[in-house]
């Protein structure tokens, strides 16, 4: 078997093991240059065997489609969103992360006298009514997922000063919060940096799992709102447990 083909098989196996890795980590594992890894990633992406992200790659099946996410645990997400909405006073400046739990929250905040920075276009559509002022930080829209990522997003978020950031996550465990894409992880960190408080909204299905892109440790959070009761989590960060909406 040609050396390049063997290396690419090993690369795919690393992604299967880890869910996704940065270009730098792939180069280290494979013992080759980052330029070689980028060429391999481009070749494998053309074959539809992986999905590239700025700074790394992951397997296509690693992140569920948005339509699937919408159907997962809707009553739990609604309960989490209701508790989160009660924390927002009129006149506040809020950043809403991309995701389906924050979409449930957007429906509850829409029309209120708030300033909301929406990190995906689906949120903005829901929020833009009544007295709610909606700000979009720009950037590239992730097709099929609607989140905003990239340099423009990061640059404009740097000009925001928010009272609270409601963070979403693909996964979280005792090591911290993780996401499927490195670009989204960078946007989340920026939003945390410009907000007085960060509150994670995550249902129990996200706990104990890990996605490839690290966002932040749990101790960077002010609160987790979830339907999960777990002593390990509660020992690491303040937690508010909600009951699902019937």
Keyphrases for this structure?
246 residues, alpha/beta, Arc Repressor Mutant, subunit A, Rossmann fold, 7-stranded parallel sheet, 3-stranded antiparallel sheet, 10 helices, 22% strand, globular
Gist of the model:
The chain is of the alpha/beta class and 246 residues long. 39% of the residues lie in helices and 22% in strands.
What's the structural blueprint in terms of helices and strands?
Layout: H1 3-18, E1 20-22, H2 23-30, H3 34-46, E2 51-53, E3 56-58, H4 66-71, H5 74-85, E4 93-96, H6 100-109, E5 115-118, H7 121-127, E6 133-135, E7 140-141, E8 148-149, H8 151-157, E9 162-167, E10 171-173, E11 176-179, H9 182-193, E12 195-201, E13 213-216, E14 223-226, H10 231-234, E15 239-241
Parallel strand pairs: 4-5, 4-9, 5-6, 9-12, 12-14, 14-15
Antiparallel strand pairs: 1-3, 2-3, 7-8, 10-11, 11-13
- Average pLDDT score: 90
C-alpha end-to-end distance = 57 Å
H/E element sequence: HEHHEEHHEHEHEEEHEEEHEEEHE
Largest sheet strand order = 6-5-4-9-12-14-15
Q: From the coordinates shown, what is the CATH architecture of the largest domain?
A: 3-Layer(aba) Sandwich
CATH structural fold name of the largest domain = Rossmann fold
Strand count, sense and barrel status of the largest sheet are: 7 strands, parallel
Total individual domains: 2
Name of the top-level CATH class of the largest domain? Alpha Beta
Number of helices: 10
Unreliable segments (pLDDT under 50, ≥5 consecutive)? none
The helix/strand class is alpha/beta
Computed CA radius of gyration, to the nearest angstrom? 19 Å
Residue share in β-strands:
15-25%
Keywords: DNA-binding, Transcription, Transcription regulation
Pfam families: DeoRC, HTH_DeoR
Protein name: DeoR/GlpR family DNA-binding transcription regulator
Domain HTH deoR-type: 4-59
